[in-house]
Amino acid sequence: MDEAMDRSTVFVKNHDAVYRIYDGEAVVVLPGEAGEAAERRHLNQIGTLVWDRIDGRTTLGDLIEAVVQEYEVTPEEAERDILEFIASLREQKMVR
Amino acid sequence: MWLPGGQAEKVTETADFRPGEDYFGGLERPFGGQGVVLAIGPLRMGLEGLDADQAREIGSRFHAFVDAACTWPDVKIALRDAGVGAFLGMPRPGTYEVYRLESRTFGSRLALWSYEFAGFIDSADGRGALALVERAGPLFERGLENFLRVVTASWMLRRGGFLLHACGVVRDGMAYIFFGPSGAGKTTVTQLSPNDTILSDDLTLVVPGPTGYMAAGIPFGLAHHRVPDTTGSFPIAAMHRLVQSRSVRRDPIRGARAVGEVATSLPFVMQETSQAALALDTVEKALATIPVYRLEFRKDDAFWGVVAPGRN
Question: What is the CATH number of domain B162-307?
Answer without folding.
Answer: 3.40.50
